[in-house]
Design brief:
The structure is a homodimer of 461-residue chains. Chain A is built from nine helices and 21 strands. Chain A is an alpha+beta fold. Chains A and B meet through helix 2, helix 3, helix 4 and strand 13 of A and helix 2, helix 3, helix 4 and strand 13 of B.
C-alpha cells in the first residue's frame, strides 16, 4: 500500500462517486459453523431455527474429537440479534514447508522439498458484523495466508538470529553485528509474518466480497504456537488472557474507537475530506447542541491526552467522529471496532463517507515464551469474543477456571466443558458470578488452550 | 494548527523555496545560566573560559539560596563540544490567578481579582542543540505559557469534577453524568494545560528565533506540583525517575527517532514529498549498497512491529529516514530527538528538506498522586538531561541516592550535594560506579526534588 494508493482510493477529486452497486460474479459465501463442530448438534448449513433467549444451545465439539493441544471450545448464538451466528472459529496444525534457494546465479526461489519442515498450531476467533460473510472468509483463509507468509521467511526463522540476507549470503562481514545491534530476533519474523498475513487476508476478503456482492467485516484474534513460543495477534475487541494459579495476564488489548481515538482523530486531521463536512473530529463529553454555541466546553483533539475548554462554534455541532462511551462508542456513528478485516464497502448510512480508511487490519502481537513460563498443570489461555468479556472480567474468568479445573482432572473433554461453563456464566442462569441483569445477548465463542507439556523447547523437523 | 496549515507550511507546490536568509529584526537572545545560579561561580554572560576536560566545574546554587521544596540542582558544561552549555534550567513558584465570569449575558472574561488563587511549583530542564538560543527562550517562557494555560481553566480545576461548561452554567441536566462517564478528572485539565503550554511555547520560540535571526531547538522536561499531585511532562530524551527505599519508577519515557519510528515513518508514508526523493522511509539493519540490489533483506515499514524480508530495489539504497542505533540514531541524518521545542528553520545539510514536520512539541505527561504515595523521608524525584542517563542507569542512580542521603541528613543543602555527586559520577573520577570508559562528555543538568512533607493534600487559596 502506498500513500498514492491511499489518496486515489479514498480521496477522489470532486464529489465522491456513488458506491458501486454490487455486481455478483461469484456465488455468495455459504454460511457454516466451524468444521470441528460437525456432528455436535444443529446442521451447519442453516441458522438455528428455534431460538428462545433462554433456550439457546451451547455448542462444543463432540466428545472424542480433539482439537490441537486438546484445547476446549464452545459457542452460543446471539439472542435473535441476527439470523446467523456472526462469530466464526478455526484451529488446526500449521505445516510450514521449507523453500530453498537455487544455486544458480540468478537465484530463483525453488521449492526443493515440499514436506513439512516446521509445525505449529493455530487457533482463531472471528467476530463478524454486517453479516457473517467476512468472518467465514477469514476462518477459511487466514491460516493459509499465515502459512504462506511464514514459508517466505522460514529460512530466517530457523537460524539462531535472522540473517541480514534471506539467501544466507553475507555481503558485508559485519551484517550479523548490525542485526544483533538492532535486537532483531527470530520471533520478530513471526510477528512480521502475522502482520503481513492479516493484511493479505484483508485484501482477499475485499476481493471475495466484491466478487460475490456481499458485505461485512470481522475482528480477528489468533493464537499461534511455534518453536516454543505462543504468539497472540489481535485486531478488534476480542480478548485473550493467560490464567495461572497465581497470575492473570492479558495477552491482547482491545482496539475500539475509544482506545484508538488519537490515531483516528489524527487521520481526520490530515485528511478532513474523509469526513465530507458531516462530522467533527473533536471529542466532547456529549453531542453539542445550539444552546452550547459560544460557551466554553470540555474537548479533546488528536494531539491531546488531557482535556481543555474551547469556545463552541457552529462546526462543533456536527455529529462526532467518535461518539458514545464504552460498549456504545461508535466510529462515524456506525462501527464499534477500529481494527479488523473486511468492511471494504462500508459507508455511513445514506452517505458516501467510507469507514475503511479509519480501520487497520494490522494486529498487535504479544509473545509468550513457553520455556521461560514453565507452565503448570492448570495453566490455560482463554480466548473469547467480546460477548464474554462484556459480562465477565478477567478476574471472574480466572476464578471460574481455577474453581472448575481441579475437580475435573479425569475428564479428557474438560477444557471444552470449561468453555461451555464460561458461556453459561454469561447467560444469567446457574449460580453465575455475574451481577443481576448482566447477561450477554451477543454471540459468544471461547477457546480454552491448556499450556502444560505443550509446545516447549522443541522445533520439529 | 490545521491540516491546511500543515500542507501550506510544509508541502508547497513546485520546488521548495530556498530557506529565507535570517533577517534579524531583534537582538539575539543573550546567553546566560539559570538565575538561581547567580553568585555560584563563573559569570553568567559568557561561556566558561578555561575548560580542560578533567577540570570542568560542577555548579550548583550558592549555599543559603533555596529552590522550591528545597530541591537540589547541579550542572556541568560539556567537554568542549560547544562553546556554551546548551542545557538550561528554570524553577519557581507557579501562581495561578483566578479569572471569573462576568454576570452579564454576554459573558466576557473579567479578571475580578488578581491575587494568587492556586499556587504550585515548577522545575524544568531544557537540553539545547544547534546553539543555546531555543533552550534559553524556553527557560524564559514556558512557565508563563503554563501559567496562562492553567489560568484559562482554573475554574474547572477547583471543582471536584470539571464542569462541562467553564461558566458553570448547566445547559443539560445530565452534563455532570456525561463528564463522569468519560472519566474526566481535574488532573486531565492540568495535562491538557501542559500540552497546550508546550505548543504555545514552541510557537513563541519560532517567532523569537526568526526575529533575532537565530536557530536551534531544545528538549523540555518539566515537573509541576499542583493540588497534591506532581505532573511530569516530557518532550525529548531527558528523564525523570522516582527513587524510594524499595522502588525505582520511571516518570517519563524518551522520544527519539528510534522510539517514535512508527509515527515518523507513517508521516513519510502519508507525505512522501517531505523526503524530496532523497531518503527512504524504510528501516534496514544497515544502510544498503549496490551489492544488496535484488537480494532479500530484513526491513520494517511504518505498520510493522516485527521484521520481514523485501527484495532490494534501487530506491532502497537512499539514505534512511531514521539511521543508526541507540545514541547514534538520527532523524534525517540530523537530529537525535523527535520531540521538543524550536527547530523551525532546521533543514538537512545542503538541502531544503525540513525536520520540523517530523517533530512534535506535545509532551507525554505522567501524574504522581502525592496523597496516595505517602512519601517517606528520603523519597526523591531525579530529573536530568541525557548526559546523565547515557552513563548511569536508573538503578545506579537509585543506589547513589540511597547511599548518599541517609548519611547527610543534617545538611540543608544535601539535595544539591547529591545532584553534584551524581554529576561527578559521570565524569569517571572518584570511586564512580560506572564502567571503565563510560564517561559523559555532554552537558549534564540534574534536579533532585525531595517529596517528603511536600505538596500533599492542600490546595492553597
Amino acid at each position: 500500500m502506498s500513500a498514492d494508493w491511499f489518496r486515489r482510493r479514498f480521496l477522489p477529486r470532486g464529489p465522491l462517486p456513488a458506491p458501486r452497486p454490487p455486481r455478483p460474479r461469484a456465488s455468495p459465501v455459504p454460511y457454516r459453523r466451524p468444521r470441528f463442530l460437525r456432528g455436535s448438534g444443529s446442521s451447519s448449513g442453516t441458522a438455528d431455527a428455534s431460538r428462545r433467549p433462554d433456550a439457546r444451545p451451547v455448542r462444543s465439539p463432540v466428545r472424542g474429537r480433539s482439537l490441537p493441544w486438546n484445547a476446549g471450545y464452545a459457542e452460543i448464538i446471539n439472542a435473535e440479534k441476527s439470523e446467523f451466528n456472526e462469530d466464526q472459529a478455526a484451529c488446526g496444525k500449521l505445516c510450514i514447508r521449507r523453500c530453498e534457494f537455487g544455486v544458480e546465479e540468478d537465484q530463483e526461489w525453488l521449492t526443493l522439498c515440499s514436506e513439512e519442515f516446521l509445525t505449529g498450531h493455530y487457533w482463531a476467533l472471528f467476530d463478524g458484523h454486517g453479516g457473517p460473510a467476512a468472518a467465514i472468509l477469514a476462518a477459511n483463509t487466514l491460516h493459509s495466508c499465515l502459512r504462506r507468509q511464514l514459508e517466505a521467511v522460514v529460512e530466517g526463522m530457523v537460524a539462531t538470529q535472522p540473517p541480514m540476507h534471506l539467501s544466507g549470503h553475507c555481503i558485508c562481514p559485519s551484517d550479523p553485528q548490525f542485526v544483533e545491534e538492532k535486537g532483531i530476533r527470530t520471533e520478530d519474523l513471526v510477528i512480521g509474518a502475522l502482520e503481513s498475513a492479516f493484511q493479505e487476508c484483508d485484501e482477499v476478503i475485499g476481493r471475495e466480497l466484491e466478487a460475490s456482492g456481499q458485505v461485512g467485516g470481522c475482528t480477528a484474534l489468533v493464537a499461534v504456537s511455534l518453536k516454543g513460543k505462543l504468539y497472540v495477534a489481535n485486531a478488534g475487541d476480542s480478548r485473550a488472557i493467560l490464567v495461572r494459579r497465581d497470575e492473570v495476564r492479558p495477552l491482547s488489548s482491545e482496539f475500539t474507537p475509544e482506545t484508538e481515538r488519537q490515531r483516528i482523530q489524527q487521520l481526520a486531521f490530515i485528511y478532513p475530506e474523509l469526513l465530507a463536512g458531516e462530522f467533527t473530529r473533536l471529542e466532547f463529553p456529549r453531542r453539542l447542541k445550539g444552546d452550547d454555541l459560544g460557551q466554553k466546553v470540555l474537548f479533546r483533539d488528536h494531539h491531546m491526552s488531557g482535556w481543555s475548554y474551547k469556545c463552541v462554534e457552529k462546526s462543533d455541532l456536527k455529529y462526532p467522529l467518535i461518539h458514545g462511551q464504552g460498549r456504545q462508542a461508535r466510529l462515524l456513528g456506525t462501527l464499534a471496532v477500529s481494527r479488523g478485516l473486511g468492511d471494504h464497502q462500508l459507508r455511513v448510512l445514506d452517505t458516501n463517507i467510507q469507514l475503511k480508511p479509519f480501520l487497520l487490519s494490522v494486529p498487535q502481537v504479544t509473545v509468550l515464551n513457553m520455556d521461560q513460563l514453565e507452565p503448570q498443570e492448570e495453566d490455560v489461555v482463554v480466548m473469547a469474543t467480546d460477548g464474554l468479556w462484556d459480562v465477565l472480567s478477567n478476574e471472574q474468568v480466572a476464578r471460574l477456571v481455577r474453581s472448575f479445573l481441579p475437580g475435573n482432572r479425569e475428564d479428557p473433554h474438560r477444557f471444552s466443558e470449561l468453555a461451555k461453563m464460561l458461556i453459561r456464566s454469561t447467560q444469567g442462569t446457574d449460580d453465575s458470578p455475574i451481577q443481576e441483569g448482566q447477561v450477554s445477548y451477543d454471540d459468544v465463542s471461547v477457546f480454552v488452550i491448556p499450556l502444560h507439556h505443550q509446545g516447549q523447547g522443541h522445533s520439529s523437523h
